[in-house]
Structures are given as structure tokens and as C-alpha cells.
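Shipment paperwork, digital attachment
Item: protein structure file
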Amino acid sequence: MFHIPLDLSVQGLLRGKGLMYARKTVGHLHYFCRDTALATLADCGYEVVDWNYTHGAETLPNQKLRTRMFNLPRSLLRTIDEDFGVRVMGGASMMVLAR
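Attachment content:
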């Protein structure tokens, strides 16, 4: 079981400081989107059995005001297309079951 933060998103890259913030505050050394996360697991010899998004930006308590402000557009884009919403707005991780 893997829980992989998806730090690469359009809004995150446009803001510019998000990746370095994640590196400094929580120790993220590698940055993933859905495709690179799944490819990395395959490269390491894992077979992905199932996966789903987890939406920590919207569900975890005590989020910063900026995060809470982005939650409405995140939620709206996800209702149209979840993959697109995560790729554009971020705020998600992947829970992956692999063997």
C-alpha cells in the first residue's frame, strides 16, 4: 500500500513556491502526478492492483486560508473530470494497492 502525494499540478507550478515548500516542510524529494507515480511503481517492479485519489486539501482539518479558497474550484473541476481537476488544481494524493 502506497500513499503518494501528487505535488505536480498546473496551479502548483504557476504559484512557483509549492514544490520547495513541500521539500522544506515535509521532506518531499520527488514530485509526482498520477502518470509518473504509476510509472515509477511499475519501474520498481510493482503491479498496481487498484488506486484512487485522496483529497487531503478538502478533507484534512486546519487548512490554511489559501487552501480553503482553492477547494471550491478543485471540487467543481473534479465533478466534471476528476483526473483533470487533480492535474490542474492539485490538492490530492493517490492511495495505491500494489503487489
